[in-house]
Design brief:
Length: about 140
């Protein structure tokens, strides 16, 4: 069980399960959405996400049809994204977590889109798109 909250603390979440396929995504959408060099995201079972408080402060933005980025309307923190094509899982923004986690990132993705000032120094595999194991 993992706990997390947005920057202002209004949106509090609990993850009642594991996080899988954690990657650092360097695509331009994740860079703009996070305001940083890359976003670190992992899959959770959608039934495992519990919005403990602040449900009314969650809003979503769709850059692509059917894909929704959920964030806190008060502080702007990205929380998770959902895809209408696959309602069984969500993509969690790992920076939202306060708990230490067992799982570890497996790769850097979309490195062909990375910021030219970002030096990749972690010893992780690098892919121009999704990691090959992504289902
Ligand atoms: Zn907030
Ligand atoms: Zn991305």
């Amino acid at each position: 069980m993992y706990l997390g909250k947005c920057l202002c603390g209004e949106v509090q979440i609990k993850i009642n399960g594991e996080i899988s396929d954690i990657i650092h995504c360097h695509c331009s959408l994740c860079r703009k959405n996070s305001g940083t060099a890359f976003a670190t995201n992992g899959f959770i079972n959608s039934l495992d996400l519990e919005i403990v408080s602040g449900k009314n402060s969650l809003s979503s933005f769709s850059f692509k049809p059917g894909k929704h980025r959920h964030f806190c309307t008060n502080c702007g923190s990205p929380v998770y994204s959902s895809n209408e094509q696959d309602p069984t899982r969500y993509r969690l923004r790992l920076g939202i977590l306060d708990s230490d986690i067992e799982e570890r990132p497996i790769s850097h993705n979309f490195v062909s889109s990375k910021a030219n000032w970002e030096e990749l120094d972690a010893k992780l595999p690098r892919y121009d798109s999704f990691e090959p194991s992504r289902k």
